[in-house]
Design brief:
alpha/beta, Rossmann fold, Alpha-Beta Plaits, 10 helices
Length: 299
């Protein structure tokens, strides 16, 4: 288990991280979210002990993270950190040896992951000869070659098409199944929703929303009702608590203030003969993020 307890970090007079606390259990995927400059990178660096002059405590399985623990950690950075003149195999062997692995084990794991990512033919190619997406795969392999106990993924799907996102998803869930503690960060909220059970949203270094993702969505007051049928938009808009009605090519999307408005809308819908769809949906994480972060950022 990773524990971050009451962590605060200053850069001079700037408070980059403000009394941040969270826990990530074994086999759990945790979202650390925020705009650029929110404090995510600083938090990652403190967890990795690249920054050690902070207030509070950070532990992995009850022990402070230091150089002796780095063999148990994998980190996929948002920025490319590959040595582009090296071949794929030499690059991964280099990283694996830094993690204390034998060359035999490294090559076995490398072949396994190259096969999963469908790039076995690039094993002896130089990094600079690979596409951006394939470089991302190699960078990911370098982060997980040691079967890390703790894995930090910062924008892991950068440069990937939907098919390759699915391949990454498969491997991430495989690691989760083995008990790896995973911290996931992305600006793409739909990617966060693929994996994360719990999350923290940071604004200016401070947590503004945290908890179980499902409960966060259930507790968020604004909901959407999707309807297919010949409704009278003006009548819907006059219902107290209806915020907006959007017409798309296939349906109407009614945004309501809270759950109490559902019955009012449904009472009207019952009077329409050709309704073929009436669904109340939870808000997307993207909607919640924009609303919460936008309000807090302006304070």
């Amino acid at each position: 288990m990773l524990k971050v307890e009451n962590v605060t970090k200053y850069y001079g007079d700037l408070k980059a991280v403000d009394n941040l606390s969270f826990e990530v259990n074994d086999g759990e995927i945790f979202g650390l979210l925020g705009l650029n400059g929110a404090g995510k990178t600083t938090t990652f660096r403190m967890i990795l002990n690249l920054i050690d002059d902070y207030y509070g405590t950070i532990t992995l399985d009850g022990e402070k993270i230091d150089y002796s623990k780095t063999d148990k950690i994998g980190f996929l950075t948002e920025e490319r950190s590959l040595l582009t003149k090296m071949s794929v195999v030499d690059q991964i062997v280099f990283y694996g040896r830094l993690k204390g692995m034998s060359e035999k084990d490294i090559l076995k794991k490398l072949d396994y992951y190259l096969d999963i990512f469908k790039i076995s033919e690039y094993k002896n190619k130089k990094i600079k000869e690979l596409s951006k997406g394939n470089q991302q795969k190699i960078q990911f392999i370098s982060a997980i070659i040691n079967d890390p106990k703790l894995l930090i993924l910062d924008e892991p799907f950068s440069g990937l098409d939907p098919l390759n996102v699915e391949l990454f998803k498969k491997v991430i869930l495989e690691l989760k199944g083995k008990g790896t503690t995973i911290i996931f960060s992305s600006h793409r909220m739909e990617h966060v929703e693929l994996f994360c059970e719990k999350l923290v949203i940071l604004v200016k270094g401070k947590s503004v929303l945290e908890g179980n993702l499902k409960k966060i969505k259930e507790d968020y007051k604004k909901k959407k009702i999707k309807v297919i049928g010949s409704i009278d938009v003006d009548k819907i808009k006059k219902i107290k608590g209806v915020i907006d009605v959007e017409e798309t090519k296939i349906e109407y999307i009614i945004t309501i203030k809270d759950d109490s408005v559902v019955k009012k809308v449904f009472d009207y819908i019952k009077t329409v003969d050709d309704i073929t769809k009436f669904v109340v949906e939870l808000p997307s994480l993207n909607e919640i993020f924009v609303s919460i972060v936008g309000d807090k950022y302006d304070e």
